[in-house]
Design goal:
Distance between the termini: 10 Å
Largest sheet: none
Shape: elongated
Oligomer: single chain
Order of helices and strands: HH
């Protein structure tokens, strides 16, 4: 793998990890709101959905970062 390709992969992975962090933070905030609100069904489902999205993004980052590792 050449240096430019590695740099591009790292940049995309860093951006993706940052986005996953934001999604997980929002999920945490919605979870706290759901715990405090008497009628919080919409918060709980939104938190669940955002948490799953954050996990999916991190799984994709892991797959992208380890894709070339098994070829060495």
């Amino acid at each position: 793998m050449n240096g430019a390709n590695l740099h591009a992969r790292y940049s995309i992975s860093t951006l993706s990890a940052s986005m996953a962090s934001l999604l997980l933070h929002l999920a945490k905030q919605l979870t706290l709101d759901a715990a405090m609100e008497p009628q919080a069904d919409r918060y709980a489902w939104a938190a669940h959905y955002l948490g799953e999205m954050g996990k999916a993004v991190m799984d994709d980052v892991h797959t992208a970062m380890t894709a070339g590792a098994d070829r060495h």
